Amino acid sequence: GDGSGRDRENLRKGIDLLKEAGYEPRGRQLVHKETGQPLAFESEVNQWPARLIPSHVTLDNFTGLIERLPVFQQSWNSFVFAGAVTLCSLALNTLAAYALARMDFRGRGVLLAVLIATMMVPFQALLLPIYQIASSLGWVNTFVGLVVPRAADVAGIFLLRQFMITLPRDLDSAARIDGAGEFRIFWSVILPNTKP
Asked: What is the pLDDT of residue 3?
């Protein structure tokens, strides 16, 4: 029937994935082609009741991975990327949210509506245009090309704006009486009140 055909197809896909990972069947176990390490030892595969933690623990697979792949460089890249996106998002999202929540300017409502409407566009629809722009700027395979498209987030702007409008306007007025400008109000009054 249809169920057994689907099961055979899923099994074939699983075997293909294991082959791509470098494993091949030898007898009743899967062994890595290069290292000769089994995916699991046969005695433990057939054991009943099954064990969650194997009795023979080895770090050979991890050392083999570290020897073949630049794991530490990839981890550092992830750390730099996540840190840069976080810092840029905090800076840009809070400034935009402050402007939308506390400053009165013509078109503020329209701008907010447009920002909210962009949340309905799925990210997958933006991937190709983002790539084309990054490519035209020479940002392909660079940290800048990864960070800049994620530097501001509409959802973050909207959530921060929603919180900032709940803060009393008297805080702004008191700061203005003391001679504070917009950035000083943002930095010394509003931003400290948005901390968790």
From this structure: 65
